[in-house]
Design brief:
heterodimer, A: alpha/beta, 16 strands, B: mainly beta, Pectate Lyase C-like, five-stranded parallel sheet, 1 helix, binds zinc ion
Chain lengths: 189, 206
């Protein structure tokens, strides 16, 4: 399994492409754009996009879908039943999505938005906008999650094993160990 | 980047290089270290490999491509990464001493929790990389593009940021003990609770 990152040129959010080791199929997470760099990322790997997983229903996560659907016959997985005008395969806590040797487990993490899900696969987790490396999801607005939301992060994400790599919707990747030791909002959780 | 679990009972580490055990549980560490060093010497592209805990002293990585690889808790003394291309790789909690990253390209790379001492980041192109909680001493960032990278909670000492692009680079709880930060566009950085000596220093977000 390999994880490529492209940046949505408008929102600077991350669009992830996960491909299996035999390089036939790919999964896109949060394609908020299908700009030239995203297209190029897919083209360079020559994979067929079979699945799109949306961490939450926001423009920065979904706006690339219509163009992607013109090229690839990909199913959309999300918490919401309809994304743009597309019917989704709805997911809930513990839903499993399989593709070739890859499998993705859904963890409901309603922080930031009611429909936020995190996607766990092997040693990686995609957390959407529930937090970012070393900070919270909205460091600009200075809006802190509620205690209930902090508990979701603590119990469902920070409790995973140290060597899990975290891929947030914005900013660089990080690891569970780095966040537990250095994220100023999590040190005392 | 999927690495298998070490075969040692109750060990949570991943298998190292092409072995069945992690480096800690490898019986002949010296032999494996030599094999790995030899592999690095012979291959220009280092891809999808786990090297956690392996020592890399005096190793030449220059002009190589390092992709989807993990170097967790590795030690690097006098390592040469000049003109190396690093992509989506993890140097978390590594020890880097007297190492050279000049003119390298560092994209989506994690150095969180690393100890960097006397390391050269001149003319590097760093993008969306993570230096969270790193201890950075006697290190030079010069003419470096550090945009969108994060240094939250990093401890810096005698470290220069000379003429760097700090656009949306994110610093928090840091004391820049050197005036060189003033030669960079720190006004475009995110600076939360940061100071330059005794003076509070402000970016575009405080
Ligand atoms: Zn082991």
């Amino acid at each position: 399994m390999k994880i490529y990152t492209a940046l949505n040129p408008e929102s600077l959010s991350n669009i992830y492409l996960i491909i299996s080791d035999n390089k036939n199929y790919g999964v896109l997470i949060d394609p908020g754009s299908f700009s030239q760099n995203v297209y190029q990322m897919i083209k360079n790997t020559s994979v067929d996009i079979k699945k799109i997983i949306i961490t939450h229903n926001g423009p920065e996560q979904i706006n690339g879908i219509p163009l992607i659907k013109k090229i690839f016959n990909a199913d959309i997985y999300a918490y919401d039943e309809i994304i743009l005008d597309y019917e989704t395969i709805t997911v809930r806590n513990d839903s499993l999505i399989d593709m070739e040797e890859m499998n993705f487990k859904i963890i409901e993490t309603p922080v930031h938005t009611y429909d936020s899900i995190s996607i766990l696969t092997n040693d990686a987790i995609f957390i959407g906008d529930i937090f970012q490396a070393g900070s919270l999801s909205s460091f600009i607005e200075k809006k802190e999650p509620s205690k209930y939301e902090f508990n979701i992060i603590k119990n469902k994400i920070l409790s995973l094993t140290d060597n899990i790599i975290i891929y947030p919707g914005q900013g660089p990747a990080t690891t569970l160990e780095i966040e537990r030791k250095f994220n100023p909002y999590f040190i005392n959780l | 980047m999927v690495f298998l679990k070490c075969r040692q009972k109750d060990c949570t580490n991943k298998t190292v290089f092409k072995e069945n055990y992690c480096f800690i549980h490898t019986k002949n560490k010296e032999k494996l270290t030599n094999e790995i060093h030899d592999y690095i010497k012979k291959n220009k592209i280092i891809k999808n490999l786990n090297f956690a805990f392996v020592p890399f002293d005096n190793i030449d990585f220059s002009k190589k491509e390092i992709i989807f690889s993990r170097f967790y808790k590795c030690s690097f003394k006098n390592a040469n990464f000049s003109k190396t291309s690093l992509y989506s790789s993890f140097f978390d909690f590594t020890d880097l001493e007297n190492s050279d990253f000049s003119s390298s390209s560092i994209r989506f790379v994690v150095f969180g929790g690393a100890n960097l001492n006397n390391t050269n980041f001149s003319e590097v192109n760093v993008f969306s990389s993570n230096f969270i909680g790193a201890q950075i001493e006697n290190t030079k960032f010069k003419d470096a593009d550090l945009s969108y990278s994060r240094f939250i909670g990093a401890k810096i000492k005698n470290t220069t940021f000379y003429n760097c692009n700090l656009k949306k680079a994110y610093f928090q709880n840091m004391n820049f003990d050197d005036l060189s930060i003033k030669t960079s566009n720190y006004q475009e950085a995110i600076l939360k609770d940061c100071c330059n000596g005794d003076t509070k220093i402000k970016g575009y977000i405080e």
